[in-house]
Each structure stands twice: as structure tokens, then as C-alpha cells.
Design brief:
The chain is mainly β. The protein has two helices and 38 strands. It folds into two domains: 84 residues, no CATH class; 327 residues, Methylamine Dehydrogenase, Chain H. Strands 1, 3, 4, 6 and 8 form a five-stranded parallel β-sheet that branches. A five-stranded parallel β-sheet has the order 2-5-7-9-10, with no helix packed on it. The chain has a four-stranded antiparallel β-sheet with strand order 11-38-37-36, with no helix packed on it. It starts with a strand and ends in a 7-residue tail after the last helix. About 4% of the residues have low confidence.
């Protein structure tokens, strides 16, 4: 049986006794109400409906090229959800679009992907309970311990997790590269003859190498963990030039300006070193944070403003003002897109919202030279790595509560931290003589631990 095109405002079909109902043209109606429809085949090119509410729908085949409906209810008088099935549902197969949230960290940081990345990060982190601020029952507490011994004073500045699971320590006063193997808890060294005060931070690049950020060694360091080989490139970089680096979406590494008045740029594909911007004040920033929109936040040290760098246009701007001297050392990206500034000597925790350029502070009376570097924990809190503080700092961004844990950590012990997939945090040894370990008892995904949002100083 073939029916002509049917385009009524409301159409009520109370029964259908035919063996097949076939509309050769589009079937368009505001509301479809049928208490019972029995047919071997219901076939239509396009069905457009604001609401489709069948009490009983029995059909050997239901073939629709396009189905647009705000509410589809089955076995329910008025659907409470876009798809509301009250009863057993059986699907022999289902085809779903690509779940962007599942691959959020694989997306290129950009304005277009910003909301998807932030939503994915939020979904990935086991958020702290907003009301009570309690931890998951299996992760209460957290233990601190040390491994290794005899590490030289002022040894390393920042660490990088590499794909084989080891952590590479960037040498500062050490003349060798430090390696920590979480599988064996073994600390070893490799290479030798590296100049003192050479580097301040490291960055993992897509080809697997680690780029050491030039501090006062005069050149950029390159370490290949697959072969344990070390080389240098570029030269003539001034003393105390940069502290911290960030991998940006186009594959370059941005060196965060400390004593230099310009930004350093390194292209690992060509080993080319260039600079951008100018007029940046001395001792301005310590550490940088890659944002989900692709920009870089420079964490203010002696600068009274926050730095923002757009690698797509190589433009540098500042925002906020009145930040105290020696305020922060390193920053941590939160799942909601904000950035936490790690308190060095500013006395409080800094929070920056790049979406609104709003800068606020919370907590207080944090001692001078307290922390250097931070880590986003698997439960959503932020760990502050102890520098002169003799304890570990913990910050809850949901409740803005700052607490401490562990004690009797030696002064100037660590500079930077690295989150491992097993949930431990590795403290990079500066002058404490040992490698520090903080066990959160909550694992994290390896892709998150390796991501350039977090895997850098």
C-alpha cells in the first residue's frame, strides 16, 4: 500500500492492519501519537518530529535516514529524557560517533578544542568531594619516603617522565644526568662532563628526546633516553637565561624567560633556536603552563604581572598587576582550566583564570622560599614540592583549603616533581641528597602523566 505525502499539523494513527505501511515521501508532523502500530515494515526516507511517543511499536524493520526529535519515549506517556525507554531494550548493534571526551588529551590545544579538553580533564581526574573535601576511602593519607643517597648538593632542577617509565632529572650543579627507575626504585646517573649550573627544567618532545632548558650552560641540552646519549645545540645563550620550558602545539619548545628580556624558542625538528618578544623585565618568570587553548602562562617570580604568550602568533602580553616579589615558582593546570601558582615567597597560593584574566590569592602565612614546583594529583588536589619548607604542601582547589603533610624534610631538598602512573610523586633532588617519593595510593593514566600540560617544570 502506498500513501501520498503526508504533512499534517497533528496526525493520530490508532491502528494499522496492513502488512506494510510505506510512505514514499517525507513524513513530517509535530507529534506522533499511536497506542498500537503493527506492521512488518515501516519505511520512510525522512521522519521529522518534535516528539515521538509510541505505547507499542512492533516492526520487523524500522528504516529512517534522518530522525530528528527532541523527545523519544517508549513505554512512557511523557518522556523525561531525550531518549526515555521504560522497559527492556535490545540492540543487536549500535554505531556511535567518536567520543571526543575519551580522547580529549589527544586533541590539539586550541580555542576550538578548549571546552572538550577541559571537560575531558575534569572527567579524568577523580574530583575531591566538593562539600566535605574528603578523599576516596582507599587513598586516605599518603606516605612520604626517600630512596638513593649521596646525591651532590644543588644536583638537579626539574624532571621529566619518559615513555619507558623512567624519570630524567635535569642537571644543574650535577655534572651527570640523573635517572630514576620506578620499577626498581633505583637511582642511577649517565653521561658526564656536563657544566655546572647548566639547566633549569626539561621538556619531553614528540621524538622521545628530552630538551634541557638552558640556564647558564650557554647551550641547549638534548638527551635521548633510548640510547642514553647527550648532545648540545645552539650556543652563546646568556647566564641564568631561562627557567622552565613548555612544549607547544606546533612542536616547538618555549623557554620561559628569567634573566633574559626575551622568550626562547627551540624547534626540535630542525634544532633551530630563535627568540621572540622583548622588553621582559629581569628575573620575571619561573616556569610556564600550557593552556587548553594553546597559549602559555608564564608564572610570575619577580614580575608584578602574569605573562601570556601565544605561540600561534609569537605575541607576548601581560595581565593582572601588583603581584609581590619572588611570589611563585612553577604553576599547575587544574582540570577546569585555571592555573595554580606554587607559593615561593609570596605568602599565599595564587590562582589565575585565563578565561577571565582574573587573578586571586588564597591561603596565607606560607613561609618564605617554601615550595618550588607542583603536581596535579590523581584526586584533583595540587601537591607543592618542598624547597625550604620541611613539609609537603597540599592544596584543594574545590575548597581552597591548604594543608601540610610529612615532616623533617631537609631544607632546599627538592626542585620540581613528577607524577607517575602508579600514583606516586617523584621529588627531584636538589640538595636533600636523596630522591623523594610521595605515595598517593591512587593511580593516574599514563597519557595524562606524559602530557605536556603536566610533564615539565
Amino acid at each position: 500500500m502506498s500513501l501520498p505525502a503526508l504533512v499534517p499539523t497533528n496526525y493520530v494513527l490508532t491502528s494499522g492492519a496492513n502488512s506494510a505501511l510505506t510512505w514514499t515521501n517525507a513524513l513530517t508532523m509535530n507529534t506522533i501519537n499511536y497506542s498500537s502500530m503493527v506492521g512488518s515494515t515501516i519505511s520512510t526516507t525522512t521522519t521529522l518530529s518534535n516528539r515521538a511517543q509510541p505505547s507499542t511499536l512492533q516492526s520487523a524493520a524500522f528504516q529512517v535516514s534522518t530522525l530528528t526529535t527532541s523527545t523519544l519515549g517508549v513505554g512512557v506517556t511523557s518522556g523525561a529524557y531525550p531518549l526515555d525507554i521504560r522497559g527492556t531494550a535490545y540492540l543487536s548493534s549500535i554505531q556511535a560517533p567518536v567520543d571526543l571526551l575519551a580522547q580529549g588529551l589527544n586533541l590539539l590545544p586550541s580555542t576550538i578544542n578548549y571546552s572538550t579538553i577541559v571537560t575531558s580533564l575534569t572527567k579524568m581526574v577523580n574530583r575531591v568531594t566538593p562539600v566535605a573535601g574528603t578523599l576516596p576511602f582507599w587513598a586516605s593519607g599518603g606516605t612520604y619516603g626517600t630512596v638513593g643517597s649521596g646525591i651532590v648538593v644543588g644536583a638537579y632542577f626539574g624532571g621529566v617522565l619518559v615513555p619507558d617509565g623512567r624519570v630524567v632529572f635535569a642537571p644543574t650543579n650535577a655534572t651527570t644526568i640523573g635517572l630514576f627507575n620506578p620499577a626498581t626504585n633505583a637511582y642511577t646517573t649517565t653521561v658526564s662532563g656536563i657544566p655546572t649550573d647548566a639547566y633549569a627544567g626539561g621538556v619531553l618532545v614528540p621524538d622521545g628526546r628530552v630538551v634541557f632548558v638552558p640556564r647558564s650552560g650557554g647551550a641547549i641540552g638534548l638527551f635521548n633516553p633510548a640510547t642514553n646519549t647527550y648532545t648540545t645545540t645552539a650556543s652563546g645563550i646568556p647566564s641564568t637565561a631561562y627557567i622552565g620550558g613548555v612544549l607547544v602545539p606546533d612542536g616547538r619548545v618555549v623557554f620561559v624567560p628569567f634573566s633574559t628580556t626575551y622568550i626562547g624558542l627551540f624547534n626540535p625538528a630542525t634544532n633551530a633556536y630563535t627568540t621572540a618578544a622583548s622588553g621582559i623585565p629581569a628575573n620575571a618568570y619561573v616556569g610556564g603552563v600550557l593552556l587548553p587553548d594553546g597559549r602559555i602562562v608564564f608564572v610570575p617570580f619577580s614580575s608584578t604581572t602574569i605573562g601570556l604568550f601565544n605561540p600561534a602568533t609569537n605575541t607576548y602580553t601581560t595581565t593582572a598587576s601588583g603581584i609581590s616579589a619572588s611570589a611563585y615558582a612553577g604553576g599547575v593546570l587544574l582540570p577546569d582550566g585555571r592555573v595554580v601558582f606554587v607559593p615561593f615567597s609570596g605568602g599565599s597560593v595564587g590562582i589565575f583564570n585565563p578565561a577571565t584574566n582574573a587573578y586571586t590569592t588564597t591561603a596565607s602565612a606560607i613561609p618564605a622560599s617554601a615550595y618550588s614546583g607542583g603536581v596535579l594529583l590523581p584526586d584533583g588536589r595540587v601537591l607543592f614540592v618542598p624547597y625550604s619548607a620541611t613539609y609537603i604542601g597540599i592544596f584543594n582547589p574545590v575548597t581552597n583549603a591548604y594543608t601540610t603533610t610529612a615532616s623533617s624534610i631537609p631544607a632546599n631538598a627538592y626542585q620540581g616533581g613528577v607524577l607517575l602512573p602508579d600514583g606516586r610523586v617523584v621529588f627531584v633532588p636538589l640538595s636533600g641528597g636523596t630522591v623523594g617519593l610521595f605515595n598517593t595510593n591512587t593511580p593516574a593514566s599514563k597519557s595524562r602523566c606524559l602530557h605536556s600540560f603536566f610533564n615539565k617544570f
